Amino acid sequence: MRPPARLVAAALALYPPHVRRRYGEEIVDLLAHSPRPWRDLTNVAWNATLERFGTVRRAPLRPYAARMGALLFAPMMFHIAVTVGMPVSSILAGAIGALVGRGTVSVSGDAGLQAGFEDGPLVGSIAVVVTVIAVLGVRAARLWTDALRLPALPVVVPAMVVLGAAGTTVAQLAYTTLANVPMDDALDPAWVAVPVSTVLWWILLTALVTRHRGLVRQGRTAAARLVVVAATAVTAGMCMTVHLLATGPQAPVTFLLMTGFTPLATACTPFTFALLRVAHRREVAAGG
């Protein structure tokens, strides 16, 4: 039994473009006539990964330190926007829910202002905040041209954005957990959810960014947009699922949406694809 054509194409896509152009047909022919196709496919994927990272190793990363730092810094700005925007929209949504009889807004002693966290408008307000930040991030991607002058963009850009998002979230967890909880109880379930979400998100982004880049180069812009939409939706669902498994089934949906990794990863996903889209347009302009 031979590997499906999709797996062969995926393994070949891991190679840098100049390697695919020169050796692509030869590699496909080798796999088609190999007596050990699965073993050879694994070797092809492994060598392609080494070749891809080799393009990064051969180009010293020190000159790119500032640009990589900019990519790490971008999620921090999104994180601040999410942190500021969500409480405001939550209070407004709770107030709207109270006015139509489906939510509550009350002021009580130590608890302060309480919005109706089980109210439908609250979930909608959270979605609006994340959507606005994602749209602004996509538009701002045009200003990040210096940060895009990096080797192996489909590998480096997702890695830097994911690390930046994870770093800002971990910093918030460290502050809130250690400031409000005794040290003996400092291990919050979110500490487990964040690294798991980080790894899964990086794998998802790297795979879909490669696919998106291929579609864009083929001129299939509609299919490329569908990849972005799917990646954003899957990111939100994946992060919420991981947090749900970590916190238990009692956690309300609004809690999963408002806290942890979910809103930040969801906003950063279209931003990452926008960066790669800008890079492609610049490549076309430079070559044309």
Automatic annotation (TrEMBL):
Name of the protein in question = Uncharacterized protein
Q: Keywords for this entry? A: Membrane, Transmembrane, Transmembrane helix
Domain of life (superkingdom): Bacteria
Has UniProt tagged this entry with the keyword Transmembrane? Answer: yes
Q: Which residues cross the membrane?
A: 71-100, 120-138, 150-170, 190-210, 222-246, 252-276
